[in-house]
Design a protein that fits this description.
39% of the residues lie in helices and 14% in strands. The chain has 532 residues and is of the alpha/beta class. Strand 6, helix 9 and strand 7 form a beta-alpha-beta unit. It starts with a helix and ends in a 7-residue tail after the last helix.
């Protein structure tokens, strides 16, 4: 008997070109038993890593818009550029400093590769800044040692120490400027872990940092190479074995090549990392940098203060789209157009009931089906929660009719209206609240009589099965108005239809509802309404 694996069809793809990652042995790993307790230190690299990945890099106006947004959201560490990569980066770095645009609690970051003269020139570019993180880096992976640099391990480590020595000598070279040092092993994920540790510890032993100095080691997932749990094992091992661990900040810099950058960052934080570099909504090279908004919202949804102001995410998304000239997808976590929206009828019904059950009690923990957070917390309202198409059910339609237009529909009328909407929406796709009201008006609020206030013989013969009266102002919606609303269910033999009426008085509304029911019953039985 063949096993399930042997029955699988082969793809014909050239899988022989690729090899699996080598599992890192960490049998006593501790991170799986930990829970997140606090937000990490956030560091935005939108203006450097994000900007360099754009087809059309930001001009000065867009850089300033992004910088102001980051400050407004509460970022305390912002990488403003790579001053030696372009004149535009140098100009913006100088503009932020010279225009005194760095708040007292914010530190800017710049970066420099370890090459002759580049660290010195980078430091000259930040003259006058109150606080600066000076990041130096060199690639350490086996592939780059062999292909790009033609260096041995010892030569790569020596290069790191040369750069670290220069940065240390320059740390106190600018009067009035506090320089905090950060070293990164570029391509950490593709570097042998024991060699990455050897290089980082050599740099730290040279710097001999004190806790107050804000010294950092960053371990970049420059290319995401293996699953999140494997990355967490390596981060925990580094966390345990780094020299001067109590005096340094261990930072992450995630990319998203495998689509699991957020998960890798979350697990790596459990494994001992203190800080995360990333971008708003995940812009960056290739598949992007780690999305700091999603990471922060994930914490927020678990009752952990994210340390960032996320109360205006729609506005933030619009600013980022302007700056990057790239759209944020409609299904993007937490901020996409559709992420708090349901089309499916069962989801709509559950959301509607959950919101109704919760009421206005803000002291309760949030527990509404299909909504992991209260959309109002991030600047959304409830108007866009439920969208109508042919998949929608009575609950969602009834919710919109109440919230948008002020009609509190009886349950059996909800069922009837859902069938009407589903039939009509087959040809139109999504139904806007305005179109929904137009269909409801055409279907239910038209009496079919020349004089809608005059009773008909058919109405006189009609025996309502159910009459529901809705006084003025009983639905919290702009469309509630000052009119009475009456819903009448009537039968003609086995045919049952609802009629709806509105009026300045209850009697007027009831009369209109009866005439509506007569018209709809007549249309259903193909007899036509009586004329009078």
């Amino acid at each position: 008997m063949e096993t399930p694996t042997s029955c699988q069809r082969t793809s014909g793809m050239p899988v022989h070109k690729y090899r699996r990652y080598e599992k890192f042995p960490l049998p006593d790993r501790r991170w799986p038993d930990r829970m997140p307790e606090r937000a990490p230190l956030w560091a935005s690299v939108d203006l450097r890593d994000g900007n360099q990945a754009l087809i059309d890099p930001m001009d000065m106006d867009r850089r300033w818009a992004m910088y102001r947004l980051l400050l407004r959201m509460g970022f305390k560490e912002i990488e403003v550029g790579f001053p030696l990569s372009s004149q535009a980066d140098r100009d913006f770095t100088r503009a932020v400093i010279e225009q005194d645009a760095i708040p007292d609690d914010v530190t800017i970051q710049v970066m420099s590769p370890i090459r002759d003269g580049m660290i010195e020139e980078t430091v000259r570019c930040v003259r006058g800044a109150p606080r600066v993180i000076l990041q130096i880096y060199n690639p350490t992976s086996a592939a780059q040692r062999r292909v790009v640099f033609g260096m041995s391990r010892e030569e790569v480590k020596r290069l790191a120490l040369v750069g670290a020595g220069r940065a240390l000598r320059l740390r106190d070279s600018l009067p009035g400027t506090e320089i905090q040092l950060q070293y990164g092993t570029e391509s950490f994920t593709q570097t042998e872990p024991e060699f990455a540790l050897e290089v980082c510890n050599a740099v730290l032993d040279l710097w001999r940092p004190e806790p107050a100095e804000g010294c950092r080691i960053v371990l970049p997932s420059t290319v995401e190479c293996y699953p999140p749990h494997e990355f967490a094992d390596r981060i925990e091992w580094m966390h345990r074995n780094l020299s001067h661990r109590e005096a340094i900040i261990l930072s992450l810099h995630q990319h998203n090549d495998r689509g699991s950058g957020i998960a890798s960052a979350e697990l790596a934080l459990l494994a001992g990392a203190d800080r995360v570099e990333g971008t708003l909504f995940g812009n960056g090279e290739r598949a992007g940098n780690v999305d700091l908004v999603t990471l922060a919202m994930n914490l927020y949804s678990q009752g952990i203060d994210p340390g960032l102001d996320l109360s205006f995410l729609d506005e933030a998304r619009q600013i980022v789209e302007y700056c990057n000239r790239l759209p944020v997808p409609p299904r993007h976590p937490w901020v996409g157009d559709f992420v708090y929206t349901s089309f499916a009828g069962s989801h709509q019904d559950a959301i509607s009931k959950g919101l109704a059950e919760r009421g206005t009690d803000e002291g309760r923990c949030w527990d509404v089906p299909y909504l992991p957070v209260d959309p109002r917390d991030v600047g959304r309202d409830y108007q866009a929660l439920i969208r109508i198409n042919q998949q929608s059910g009575k609950g969602g339609i009834a919710y919109l009719m109440k919230q948008e237009h002020g009609y509190v529909l009886p349950r059996r009328l909800q069922i009837e209206l859902a069938a009407v909407v589903q039939a009509r929406s087959e040809a139109t796709g999504e139904v806007t609240p305005e179109r929904l009201l137009r269909w409801f008006t055409d279907e239910y609020l038209t009496t079919g009589a020349a004089d809608p206030t005059a009773p008909s013989d058919a109405e006189a013969r009609l025996t309502p099965r159910d009459v529901v009266v809705q006084p003025p102002g009983t639905a919290a919606a702009n469309g509630a108005g000052a009119d009475w609303k009456v819903y009448v269910e009537a039968a003609d033999g086995t045919t049952v239809r609802w009629g709806v009426g509105e009026g300045a008085t209850q009697d007027e509304a009831r009369g209109r509802a009866l005439r509506s029911a007569v018209r709809r019953l007549a249309a259903a039985t193909h007899t036509g309404p009586e004329e009078h």
